Amino acid sequence: MIRVTLHWKGDLITGFESRGHADYAEEGSDIVCAAVSILTTTCANALESVAGLEPKVKVSPGKMILTLPEGSGHDAQVILKTMRQGLSDLKDAYPDYLLLKEN
Fold first, then answer.
1. Beta strands across the sheet bearing 2-9
2. 44 lies in which domain range?
3. Domain containing 31 — which CATH number?
4. What pLDDT is recorded for position 25?
5. How far apart are the first and last CA of the chain?
6. Is 76 a domain residue?
7. pLDDT band at 71 (very low <50, low <70, confident <90, very high)
8. pLDDT score of 27
9. In the Cβ-directed half-sphere of 11, how many Cα atoms lie within 13 Å?
């Protein structure tokens, strides 16, 4: 199961952690892993290319940790909340393979 935790400070998302593998299908054919990977990677890239930020990102096999710099603006929240929506929709479709936590 993939576990994604969104970190909040008040009403602002300050970062996230994604860990694990879905085990929905064989490696290379796992649509749940692919979906989580594309959502989190696109979010990280958009925070840089669209919002003009330099988030702290740590990536290793089966894991991504992203932390926003202090004072990130409206664009960052739109990007992160769009990722959140995609992950929530994915969790609803595949509840046995993705856990979405918010704290």
1. 56-60, 63-67, 12-19, 2-9, 98-102
2. 20-102
3. 3.30.70.1490
4. 97
5. 19
6. yes
7. confident
8. 87
9. 2
Any residues with CB less than 8 A from the CB of 65 and at least 6 apart, and which?
15, 16, 17, 18, 56, 57, 58, 59
3-state secondary structure of 98: strand
Q: Which residues pair with 13 in a beta bridge?
A: 8
- Six-digit token string for 92: 């609803």
Q: With beta carbons less than 8 A apart as the criterion, state whether 73 and 51 touch.
A: yes
Alpha helices, H only, the chain: 31-49, 74-93
Q: Determine, yes or no, domain membership for 71.
A: yes
Strand duo 98-102 + 2-9: pairing = parallel
**Total number of domains in the chain:** 1
